[in-house]
Structures are given as structure tokens and as C-alpha cells.
């Protein structure tokens, strides 16, 4: 069975934020519904399991799932909250005697190597600019606008008759960037706030109100919001459009 598991659903700072006593952070420290590690997902398939992104919570995410090793990780972009766990993954490869396979666009690989030049000692870094096949999924990525933070990549994954996309870090997508998001069974989209009031030029990820406008154009069968800050309370009913839900840590969805 093909399954998508949300290992982390938080923005770059996670929830709770250590300095914060807001209602969401307080709830996360008590009942814990709003605890959010940095955004990452695990894709389970009959032939090969792989992750998307490897942030600084990678070790904890692996421990929570009871995993001792993962051989393949697909990376969306080279910001710390998406690659901060790479040294620990490489160390796991070293100690277990396995070579990991890191897939990313070449320009993302180049940026990663400027930060962690020693990774090729333990990982094969494989460009996906011409697409990739992982776990039976045909994968293609494309650049998306990440606002003041530059750019990231989104991925469309297709297998049999099921198509879904992972777009965790984007805002204000143009028509060309939106095109691969049409005709989806599932869209996983980053929305850091319900309604972000900061000046638009300073922002980097959709808020939920903006995302709903995009979803109205795309009409995916189902949408799950991820990459959420401590502005978002997953126990609250936001009155979102039908077919939209909020990701929770450990949530599992069938991909078929």
C-alpha cells in the first residue's frame, strides 16, 4: 500500500516556540495537539520508502516512527529547516555502512555542498532536473516562488492513476508555476498562517485565505495544509473549503 505520513508539519521555527506563551504554544506543551516538528513527509510504497526533506528534527522524527535508517531523501530546497538533518543522516550512513541517496535539483545540490562539502563521502547526490523514479513514483520538480526567501521546488508525483503534489514553501505562484498543480488527487500545500498581516514583500509562504483562492482555481480532490506556524490551532474550525484539512504529526493518508 502506498501511504503518505506527515513526520513534521511546522514552519521553520516549529511549535511550540521556546520563547512563546501564546495559546497555541501553551496547548502544544500540555495536551500536545499543536506540537509541530519541521515539515517533512515519509512516502511508503511496496518497493522503496523515501522522505521529502531532512530538517533539524530528522533524528526525532525517525525515533518517533521507530525507524533506524532511511536510504533515500528528496529535498525541496536548501534552507536550514529542510536540510539541517543531513549531517545526522550522513552519520547514520557512515555507522551502518550504507550509502544514502539524496535527490534534488542540481542547483540545490550545489548549495548543499557549499554548506556540507563532506556529504559525498556518505551520500550519493543525484540531480532530479530531468525527473526521477522513486518507489514507483514518477517525480518531476519545478521552481516555485518562495517570496522574500527566494525560491524552492515543488514536486508532482504520479503512479498508476494517482497524482499528487508536495509544495511546502511557496507564495504568489504565477501561471507557469501553477500549471503542474492542476488535475491532482491530493495537494499538500504550505500555509504558515491563517491570515498573515505582515507586509507582503516580507513574506515567503501562503496564508490559508490566499491558499483557498489558489485551490479554487486548481480544484484538487483533496488538500492538506502543512508548514504551519504557531498562529495555527489545529483544534480550531476555520471554516475552510470542503476537501481541505490541516496536517497533524503522524497523520497517514493512502496514496491510491
From TrEMBL:
It catalyses: 3',5'-cyclic CMP + H2O = CMP + H(+); 3',5'-cyclic UMP + H2O = UMP + H(+). This is Beta-lactamase. PANTHER family: HYDROLASE C777.06C-RELATED, HYDROLASE C777.06C-RELATED-RELATED. Counteracts the endogenous Pycsar antiviral defense system. Phosphodiesterase that enables metal-dependent hydrolysis of host cyclic nucleotide Pycsar defense signals such as cCMP and cUMP. It holds the Pfam family Lactamase_B_2. Residues 37-227 form the Metallo-beta-lactamase domain. SMART domains: Lactamase_B. SUPFAM superfamilies: Metallo-hydrolase/oxidoreductase (SSF56281). InterPro entries: Metallo-B-lactamas, RibonucZ/Hydroxyglut_hydro.
